[in-house]
Amino acid sequence: MAGIYLHIPFCKTRCIYCDFYSTTREDLRQRYVQALCLELKERKDYLKEATVETVYFGGGTPSQLSEENFDNIFQTLQEVYGLDKTIEITLEANPDDLTDEYVHTLRRFPFNRISLGIQTFDDRTLQLLHRRHNAAQAQNAVRRCREAGFDNISIDLIYGLPGETEKLWENDLMQALQLHPEHLSAYHLTYEEGTPLYRLRQEKRVREVDEDMSLKFFSQLNSTLRQAGYVHYEISNFCLPGKHARHNTSYWQGIPYLGCGPSAHSFDTRSREWNKASLETYIQGIEQGKRPYETEVLNADTRYNEYVMTGMRTIWGISLDKIRTDFGTERLDYLQRMAAPHLRRGKIVTQDGRLRLTEEGIFISDDIISDLMYV
Ligand code: SF4
């Protein structure tokens, strides 16, 4: 079992909060897709013939790709890895790209999940963030996907935005629920160093929400979505029963994945690799047979910490058996010692040999997880 992540590093314009790797250059798109297909072919042994169950087109803006681009990529995926056993193929899309014609084109390909970067339904905030769509375009995009037959739609929202009030956040949640998405991801805004938004905060032209407000937003998110029947299966992710994101879940469960394209990460359970975050360097490197990448062999402590950090964020928690077998009794003892006070306070529970956060524990997940880290 394995996944493939394809990074599509093109954006029409840049949003002011974003620090993902992407470029507004359009002239290299064709050459890039050829390089990406070459990387997929050259690294076919990375997954050691594990069955590819998920493919994720992320970015950047994958919905900037053309029909011909998708033709090339899917042909390569089919030839090299086979897609017969793939259960989930996700396309991240920007609402403004999803015209009738484009959505119709997407149906020609085996995508069975669309993840829409809506972020908020407040038009003023969308403008401030330099998003290219407005609320009406977002709603229309979801409607078009539905009409075209997509039955697994995810919506991304951001909360803790400048000037956000409980009322505005409630409105975002209500508008999102009216679209009946199968899946919803909601992340707190972070002010990433080097972004225009970070500078605006330094210049005191926007104000960060305080911790109390952040907690209120998170609490509102939890209660609204639970009441609407969504399963809170990862700190920032909610889904209708059975509709969790398979690809992202495999990251949290330590399943190997191959990541292609500039800045993409790969993981084979023992080491991590990441391609350099530069489109030009990437294309040249691939064309010359010298992929620009770095690698890190993960020692047992790092693997333990990663397993605990990602697993504890999910509803499934972490397996005590796996800790013993993969990381040894010393780390298991350590984990149990560090978990004890949180168990006593009802912030975590053990059930069926697994340790996980309780509903209360979710609110202090960062503190609990940092206590469980092996240092
Ligand atoms: S569209 Fe997405 S990847 Fe591109 S700049 Fe905006 S947030 Fe970043």
Characteristic terms for this protein:
binds iron/sulfur cluster, globular, Arc Repressor Mutant, subunit A, alpha/beta, 375 residues
Write structural notes for this entry.
- This protein has 375 residues and is of the alpha/beta class.
- It has 2 domains: 2-252, TIM Barrel (Alpha-Beta Barrel), CATH 3.20.20.70; 300-372, Arc Repressor Mutant, subunit A (Orthogonal Bundle).
- Helices cover 40% and strands 20% of the residues.
- It is built from 14 helices and 15 strands.
- The protein has helices spanning 29-42, 67-80, 100-106, 123-128, 135-147, 166-178, 196-202, 211-227, 246-252, 279-287, 300-311, 320-327, 329-344, 365-372, and strands at residues 2-8, 52-59, 88-93, 113-119, 153-159, 183-188, 231-234, 237-239, 257-260, 265-267, 271-275, 293-297, 318-319, 348-351, 354-357.
- The strands form 3 sheets. The protein has a 9-stranded mixed sheet, sandwiched between helices.
- α1 packs parallel to α2 and α12 packs antiparallel against α13.
- It binds iron/sulfur cluster.
- Residues 11, 14-15, 18, 20, 22, 59-61, 94, 117 line the site of iron/sulfur cluster.
- The site of iron/sulfur cluster (SF4) has 11 residues, from loops.
